[in-house]
Design brief:
The chain is of the alpha/beta class. It has three domains: about 5-175, Rossmann fold; about 180-280, 6-phosphogluconate dehydrogenase C-terminal like domain (6-phosphogluconate dehydrogenase C-terminal fold, Orthogonal Bundle), CATH 1.10.3660; about 295-365, RRM (RNA recognition motif) domain (Alpha-Beta Plaits, 2-Layer Sandwich). It has 13 helices and twelve strands. Helix 3 packs parallel to helix 4.
Length: about 375
């Protein structure tokens, strides 16, 4: 690939990870970066990710081949107005927002259609900020690419190649198709998870029996309800039409299964679980999805002093980092009593083999 000058406006988790990934693969590319926080700018310069840092989005970006907008959606659109007066004719602006419709509309209004390729890296973490960015965060993660019709095929192909080269899996989509898809696989599920948590909260007894027994399966399917309220309010606002459409379809399916349960028609309930099981089992485990995956195993142990520390010791001796570990009191859905979470799939697989070799019975999620 030709030598490129690539600008970054925003050096948070995603912006920082993309910049680090590019620098890891291409030490000949020049990276110029702006971030509102001086600490992130200084850190990127110090660790060699950025070659140039600036205190504002200024003329340093004027000769960039690509500029990544990695700030919240509203701020990205504000930066477009500034960049329009700065960028060269051949510069391509891209973004990393989870909703594409609003920025594509802004691009058209600003007559920047020939300079824009929308982007959405489908990776993330519960951690935020540049200090938590990682040069391998996007590996095997889908990366939606939504070019305008006015962008040349040569620039789209080059951007596609750039994203592929850092280990991500680019997928070319119309921005409208993208927004409808992510509403179904991410935005609506976050709303459902929040509603499920509030269902328990609003219907629990004074003794909080539901909260006491909520473990394992319930905590897993509602994990994403712990996401940032500010971020998800913004996402729901920017993709509201798609979310509303899919929520209506989901509500209708709930009404149908409610009727089946009320009329005691077991075949309908069976069909629901059979179809969902078969479809979910067809999903690939080799790639990252939009909702951050957790890597978990369950291990049968005897409830006696030192049991957990013994297992933790086995893993520590083999340099395996544990994200979370604890006893599962509700074993309705889990096969094992000790639940261990890991940061990476490789660590989970290695731990599974180690514990099995030590005589433990180990189970993993599908």
């Amino acid at each position: 690939m030709r030598n490129l000058k690539i600008g970054f406006i925003g050096l948070g988790l995603i912006g920082g990870s993309i910049a680090k990934s590019i620098k890891r693969v291409y030490d000949n590319h020049t990276i110029v970066a702006y971030n509102r926080s001086a600490a992130a700018r200084e850190c990127a310069l110090r660790d060699g990710t950025a070659d140039i840092v600036t205190e504002q989005a200024d003329e340093h970006f004027s000769d960039c081949d690509y500029i990544f907008l990695c700030t919240p959606v509203e701020q990205n659109i504000r930066y477009l107005k500034c960049l329009k007066e700065i960028i060269s004719e051949n510069c391509i602006i891209t973004d990393v927002g989870s909703v594409k419709g609003n920025i594509h509309t802004a691009i058209e209004q600003l007559s920047l259609s020939k300079n824009f390729i929308g982007g959405h890296p489908m990776a993330g973490s519960e951690k935020t900020g540049y200090t938590n960015s990682d040069s391998h965060l996007l590996e095997n993660a889908y990366y939606a690419i939504t070019p305008t019709k006015e962008v040349s095929s040569e620039r789209t192909n080059e951007f596609f190649a750039l994203i592929s080269s850092i280990g991500a899996l680019p997928v070319l989509l119309d921005y409208r198709e993208h927004d409808y898809a992510v509403a179904a696989i991410s935005h609506v599920p976050h709303l459902i998870a929040a509603c499920l948590v509030n269902l328990v909260k609003d219907n629990d007894s004074d003794r909080e029996t539901m909260k006491l027994l909520a473990a394992g399966g319930f905590k897993d399917i509602t994990r994403i309800a712990s996401s940032s309220p500010d971020m998800w309010q913004q996402i729901c606002s920017t993709n509201r039409d798609n979310i509303a459409t899919l929520l209506e379809k989901y509500i209708q399916s709930l009404k149908e299964i409610k009727t089946a349960i009320e009329k005691n028609t077991p075949h309908s309930v069976y069909d629901l679980f059979e179809k969902s099981r078969d479809y979910r089992d067809s999903f690939s485990n080799q790639t990252h999805g939009l909702i951050t995956k957790i890597y978990t195993l369950y291990c049968d142990i005897i409830d006696e002093s030192g049991s957990i520390s013994t297992i933790a010791g086995i893993l520590a001796k083999n340099n395996i980092s544990i994200k979370n570990i604890g006893i599962v009191n509700n074993r309705e859905t889990e096969a094992g009593v000790l639940r261990i979470e890991f940061y990476e799939q490789m660590a989970s697989e290695f731990a599974c083999q180690l514990l099995a070799d030590c005589g433990y019975t180990v189970y993993t999620d599908k």
